[in-house]
């Protein structure tokens, strides 16, 4: 039933008057051809299944309405208490959710995470760095620095270390200075640096003024002779491979198929 009117379990249509002829007409004209072969016990199972599905749908809206009503009642109750006391309740008043407070809490959490990471990096026997230079929505160049290290117990830690903005140019020297500042900030030693992963850009991998070459030069200046293990991001390699492949014939079929499926609601429903 939908209110005081009978509700069809197959098409969710209602009948104006509760008469057998009206119910029979709705079933005969709309559903008899499709369901005439379902008889006996199978018919009872089908009816129970449709009834259960309808009840679940109705329960969803009933639950939402109930929760909304409870929230409204709670709001009125709190307002009534505050009005009678002529002052805000202390538990509610002590909860601060202003933008400034939330920002300050996030900064505190960020500082705590950074402090925890520093405790881990102090135990590194060797470490490697991954760099990724990009530009944000405001055209500010920035270098993302990731650290991966191993301690004496062979425990490996891999974490995002810092995002350093480049206010001016994005040369190898600028990137080198950004990386050096992160290494110094975390109390790491260049002697323990064994590898660097980059996106293969000239500013990163240049033989003279690339960031990696400048770091190797700095290591030699402090008396440590080592050639870093240079690696290229797998993701960037996949992008380069994709550019060199000729997959137009494959993609043309895929795009045409997707467009056909999504062009009409009926196509999409039948595909599902």
UniProtKB/TrEMBL annotation:
Protein name: General transcription factor II-I repeat domain-containing protein 2-like
Residue ranges annotated for the DUF4371 domain, each copy included: 108-210
Protein species of origin: Oopsacas minuta
InterPro entries, per the entry: DUF4371 (IPR025398)
């Amino acid at each position: 039933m939908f209110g005081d009117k009978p509700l069809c379990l197959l098409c969710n249509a209602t009948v104006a008057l509760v008469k057998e002829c009206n119910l029979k007409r709705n079933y005969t004209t709309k559903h008899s051809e499709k369901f005439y072969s379902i008889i006996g016990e199978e018919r009872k199972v089908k009816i129970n299944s449709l009834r259960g599905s309808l009840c679940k749908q109705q329960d969803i809206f009933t639950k939402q309405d109930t929760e909304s009503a409870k929230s409204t009642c709670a709001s009125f109750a709190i307002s009534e208490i505050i009005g009678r006391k002529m002052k805000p309740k202390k538990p509610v008043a002590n909860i601060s959710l202003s933008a400034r407070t939330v920002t300050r809490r996030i900064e505190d959490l960020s500082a705590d995470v950074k402090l925890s990471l520093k405790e881990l990096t102090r135990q590194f026997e060797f470490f490697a760095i991954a760099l990724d230079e990009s530009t944000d929505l405001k055209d500010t160049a920035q270098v993302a620095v990731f650290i991966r290290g191993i301690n004496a117990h062979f425990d490996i830690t891999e974490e995002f270390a810092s995002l350093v903005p480049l206010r001016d140019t994005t040369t190898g020297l600028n990137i080198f200075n950004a990386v050096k500042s992160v290494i110094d900030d975390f109390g790491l030693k260049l002697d323990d640096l064994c590898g660097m992963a980059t996106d293969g850009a000239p500013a990163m991998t240049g033989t003279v003024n690339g960031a990696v070459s400048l770091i190797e030069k700095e290591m030699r200046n402090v008396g440590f002779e080592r050639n870093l293990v240079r690696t290229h991001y797998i993701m960037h390699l996949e992008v380069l491979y994709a550019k060199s492949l000729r997959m137009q014939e494959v993609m043309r079929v895929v795009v045409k198929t997707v467009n056909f499926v999504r062009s009409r609601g009926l196509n999409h429903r039948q595909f599902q």
